[in-house]
Specification:
The complex is a heterodimer.
Chain A (H helix, E strand, L loop, with lengths): L16 H22 L23 E8 L2 E8 L2 E6 L12 H4 L1 H5 L9 E2 L8 E2 L2 H15 L3 E5 L5 H14 L2 E4 L7 H10 L6 E2 L6 E5 L12 H5 L12 E6 L4 H4 L3 E4 L2 H18 L9 H7 L4 H7 L4 H13 L4 E4 L10 H15 L7 E2 L9 H12 L5 E5 L3 H4 L6 H6 L3 E6 L11 E4 L8 E4 L4 E5 L12 H11 L3 H15 L15 H14 L6 H13 L1 E3 L29 E6 L12 H5 L7 E2 L4 E3 L1 H6 L6 E6 L4 E8 L7 E6 L22 E3 L2 E3 L1 E4 L1 E8 L3 E2 L5 E2 L9 E3 H6 L25 E6 L8 H9 L6 H7 L7 E7 L16 H4 L4 E6 L8 H5 L5 E3 L5 E3 L9 H4 L7 E2 L11 H6 L2 H10 L19 E2 L5 H13 L15 H5 L5 E5 L6 H6 L4 E2 L11 E4 L1 E3 L4
Parallel strand pairs in A: 6-7, 6-14, 9-10, 9-12, 10-11, 14-15, 15-16, 20-25, 22-24, 31-34, 32-43, 33-42
Antiparallel strand pairs in A: 1-2, 2-3, 4-5, 4-16, 8-13, 17-18, 18-19, 20-28, 21-30, 23-24, 23-29, 26-27, 33-40, 34-35, 36-37, 38-39, 41-42
Helix pairs in contact in A: 5-17, 6-13, 9-11, 9-12, 9-13, 17-18, 17-19, 18-19
Chain B lengths: L17 E3 L9 E3 L10 H13 L4 H27 L14 H12 L1 H12 L9 H21 L27 H34 L3 H10 L7 H34 L11 H27 L8 H31 L3 H12 L3 H13 L7 H4 L2 H28 L14 H24 L5 H7 L2 H4 L20
Antiparallel strand pairs in B: 1-2
Amino acid sequence: MRPTDPHERPEPTALDRREFLRLGGTLAAASALATTGCQPPQEATIPFHDMPESLADGLGRARFYRTVLAGSPVQVTTREGRPILVAPPPDDRSGRGVALRHQAAIMDLYDPDRARHPLAVRRGQGAPVPASWAAIETEAIDRLRRAGSRAVLLTGPLASPGLAAAIAALGERTGLRHVAWSPLAADAAARAWEHAFGEPRPARPRLDRAAVILGLGAEFLDRPEEGFEPEFAARRVPDAEAGMSRFIQLEGRLTLTGASADERLRVRDSELAAVAAGLAHELVVGRGLGPLAGDPEVAAALAPFPLATVAERAGLDAARLGAIADELQAGAGRALVVAGGSASSTAQGPALELAALLLNETLGAFAAGLFESAAAPATGTAGALAALAAELRDGKVEALFIAGANPVYDAPAALDFATALEAVPFVLSLADRLDETSRYADYLAPASHPFECWGDAALPRGLFAVQQPVVQPLHDTRGLLDLLVGWGAALGDPAASAAVAAAAAALATPPEPAAAMPAPSPSPAYHYLRAEWAARLALDPASPAFRTAWEETLREGAWQGPAPAPLPGTFAPGAAALLAGLPPPATGLELQLYPHLALGDGRSANNGWLQEFPDPITRISWGGALSLAPRRFDEMGLANGDLLLVDAGHAQVVAPAYRHAGMHYDQVALPLGLGRTACGVIGNGTGPDAWPLRQLAGDQIVAAGLPVTIRRAGGHEALAFAQGSDVIDRDRRPIVPFTTRSAWESDPRAGTEQQEGGPSAWPAHDYPAERWAMAIDLSRCNGCGKCVLGCQAENNVPVVGRLGIIEGREMSWMRIDRYYDAPRRDGRWGAEVWDGPLAVVEEPQTLFEPMLCQHCANAPCETVCPFIATTHSADGLNQQIYNRCVGTRYCANNCPFKVRRFNFWEYSTARESALFRWLEPRLSRHADLNARAPMQMKNNPEVTVRSRGVMEKCSFCIQRIMAARAAATRAGRSGQRLPDGAVVPACLEACPTGAIVFGDLNDPGSAVARLAAQPRAMRLLAAIGVEPSISYLTKVRNDKA
Amino acid sequence: MSPWATVQDDSQLTGRPLVVPGAGPYGGDLEIPEPLVTGGKKWADVDRDICMHAERFPTRRWWLAFGVALALLGVLVVSLAVLIYSGMGVVGVNHPVGWGTFIINFVFWIGIGHAGTLISAVLYLFRQPWRTGINRAAEAMTIFAVACAGIFPIIHLGRAWFAYWLVPYPNARGPLWVNFTSPLAWDIFAISTYALVSIAFWYLGLLPDLATVRDRATHPWRRRLYNALSFGWTGSQRMWRHYEAAYMILAGLATPLVFSVHTIVSFDFATSVMPGWHTTIFPPYFVIGAIFSGFAMVITLMTFMRGYFGMKNYITTNHMEAMAKILMFTGMMVGFAYTTEFFMAWYSGSEWEGFVFKNRAFGPYGWAYAIMFTCNAIVPQLFWWKKLRRHTWVLFTVSILVNVGMWFERYVIVVTSLHRDYLPSSWGMYSLTFWDYSILIGSFGLFFTLFLLFVRVLPVVAISEVKGVMDPRVARSAPTDSGAAAVTAGAAPGA
């Protein structure tokens, strides 16, 4: 402060600039020191898929980390230290896939209902009170020491070798026993493999190598984490290099997998094993095919299943089954049979799996290399859990540690886990929230999210991946491995002690500011893992070679270990005896319980993205319904949402009814993973809780083929449908290009016929540089919806809640339209307004069509906006200017694709005054769904968070286009066209099948230009001349046997 | 003496002229129409009868009506507060039906606003003397209806507080200009022009009458107020000459507006690509529908004025019958438009178009279509019978039904076209919420509040014009009552 007026004297008390800076600097340093003392110590990880190895320029740039989440490799994008997006890692070769749950893990991380510090739950006696980690650890170690083998650790499925080692070490020290429990584990396949090949290690079918795929209730597309989607999609295009595959599916419920079938037969779950045996009988006994032909044991086992008998008992046309057998026979060596899914959880599940193995053996699938060996899946069995429950009840367990399992919610009701827990003197729950099971514990030790702690995973193809933290723990939480290593050290385990000592040493070393190398980590799990990995890589942990290898692994996401042991030996004919126990055909109704496509077993039920994700088949979000065959539904005079009582004898559940196309008449189905009562404000009480309907039969859980009766329970519960009509009459509305392979072969344009429009009155746009465009290959798309979630995460799309969906206020920029194709009719004007006559929905042909802003060249939205809030860019984008939008909604009305989304509410902020909360309770709900701290951290800083009253829609991820352009400019290529593939929109990034292609239409060499020029390409609604930028490529059904 | 001197009362009117055989100018029959003002009124009576309502303390009935209207206006204010604080989510609009009751109400009120200008301008140019009894009130109705209508385009915005961005004026926001290809921008011009011209026309017509009120005023402040309002009208010959010329010019200006406003409102729909909206018939169809609904509203209001304000001698059954005839005629035209739409949907061969119309009539909103068709195209057919045309209650009921029907016409147009358009996946339904209803009802509160204030402070019948159509042979004599006011400066010209 320098006086400019010589007569003015400086204030005597004022600091001069230097003094101020000196003081300020000291203060800042002091406060920084003080606050670091309170925070968890800084730790650095090696991130950077494609980033410089320096942490200095963290702001304003995205960082990409490869890590592993629930056994699947993922790539996490972080901004300013906040994870904001989970996507499949590029060039992943792990044999695992990214499921919706993985994509939505961001919301789990920022879930406001997570436990934020240790709690003394006191078994639900009174409200939980805060506890300290020290108290919990002291007691846990003490209990471990005293209980010996009477201590049990109950975990979820463990894919982590590091964790397994730590548990084993602890077990060696104290006698701690480990029980794994995964409610959805399907062990029928393992049983069949054990019978047939002597080893319970199912191999992985290679769908990209098969020309004919027979699915027996297969659900490989319903379980994306298993990673089958890309391999399946590779041969779904008619011009695939290896030839188009043909997929025949036999199933009782129309699944996402069945929706992609070329031919689909309805067979109830309990009859699938018999039908499979019938096909085997036909091929092995009837036609003497394969190495098992003539084997007396096999022949004897198959004797009760001649094709005609089987067809009769399953209510099928014998000729149709025979045709399938013909196809299999013709395709021997290229044909693959896949069983599994929910259908394998019937009592006849092992028999079904075995019949599939028998068919594969007969068709030479093993010999032809249509299977690849895989590491044994990490699952827990129901038998182990049942034994544990019995022990608990008998007082044989003194201390129970529960980590990542929620048996009170999802264990078979017969085990009555809640009561069993009461008999245990000490229960410690390591969970991320006070869930159903934790309520019965003494303590809740809050678990870190996998994004916050170290771990590792073994992947099916022999890859090992490191789970590296991508963010510091948001709350006072710890990872399971950290906890176990700490306990191991306290109990004298040398490896654990070394890790803890190294962590302590790292803590003592102050991190060097701006060091090129990351500071040593204070996490014991990190040091423990490194030691484990050093042993795995056979390197000295201190050597530079190991350091390089470790960093390489973190960068690349995984390390290729030894390939899994080759396929187990030869098929043991005696295994066919498993088929002998097949019961006579059931009469009456049977129930299938299937995992909710988004929620899985329901552990992420407090996740708004997952709850709001519409099931690709039923299109229901926020809950689930009892699926009934359309004919039965009509006979009962039901309406969607009428409440039904499902009575399985041992349990009853009330659920709303849903008219499920393609359902077998004698089968009903209900999703699992709903009806949580203690997951948090978002998911509590959403949908019916179907777990109690599962039955424990011996050591096997039966979740399908359950005999049930249904009756009206009275009442109605509106279902949150994210779609209007189900049925599309393509002869009137040719908006989904679809044809058969034979038609395509005679005319590659088949299926794209539509009325052409007249000349345009508008001058054409000039696209001097790029013209961004998209092509979506409907033949590749299986409707999984991961693009929808990818878009939601990337573009800060809010969650609107159940009521929002019912009211039609969905905000999703992208949606997967699911249609059932109506047979062509003659004449015009004739059709009534219908939502699906029986003829269409009993044997539906499902069509998926991802729908997003078409970025029309003649966009109807642009001309009608009085505020010029939506405009056409020079590179072909239909842009929405939020600040300019005042919300007339005219653009949305005039959008023929109805892809524009209006912010009817202020979703992004918690606007609650007492008066208006009373007047408008939805405001509170929106705050719960979107705006409670720390949820705002999920937002992508590159994308505006929209306020109420403005319109929004797909932007073709303009922020990524801009980022690519900026990168090109930095690289000195400004003014040049961006190379093909430089811009990857979020939907494309999330798509596992490569159905979406994005690029520059003006570049004749780009992939999108080539696809758009294909005869299969169709741009929708040519008749009204909007000229979309998105080309849809015909979905081709392979009708050629 | 006039042959009609004996007609003492509105109820004695027959609606038929007196035929004097052979008395015509060329030897044919002479038809002498019935008088437009009954009751043997003198000019002085007219002043008293019409100004009376503005000069005395309001009746209990007026207070009651005003209380109700004011309460409804309160409902509107509260509803708008809730709407603007909470967000558009409180009303029923959704995806895919992005426009709902706000646009329906907007078109509805704008439509109502058409009759006033039609009566005052078009009928004036066509020299229809019977318009004098009703034009003042009809014009007032127009202005108030436009005021009601004007609310809706603003509140239907997601961010109503930026509505002024729609006005193209040089500004510091970029400058942010409006999109002249958008019909919503055209609306701004069309409606503001219409409102301004309507107000000017109405006010011009009021000038001599305001002077009459001034001259009758006893309180000095009242005198000064009305003098100021009348711009110091003196009633000189020169003034009358200018007045008449200005009135004629404004009538000429207003006439195209009758057709342009609703034409442009119809462009909101017609220029879109939505099947069911994108039709060339919309401009005439909207205009005729607007006249139809406007006349229905005039009938409703005039029924009240006849009944409650003792205006039967000025707004006679013959007036009502004339309006009934217009109602029936426009009703038939509206019905013709409905049918034409169907024909075109079929004849165009467009699947989308065909579906939308089939869905309109027989889809989930078929009930609304049925209400619309019945009320608008069928019910007015009652007026083929003269007896029904002259029957107060029939007229009143039909006028209400027509307005209901016309509201539903807009409902059908807005909702059914949007709820099932091109992609069946995004089909949806639309339903009204509490706030939709409250804002609709509240807008009637605004309308009636304004109208009730109007009848209290301004002459509800155009005094000077009525005087001009009275038979001077009857009207020239002294007032019928003792203590009547003198013939004032506002007296009919050329009397």
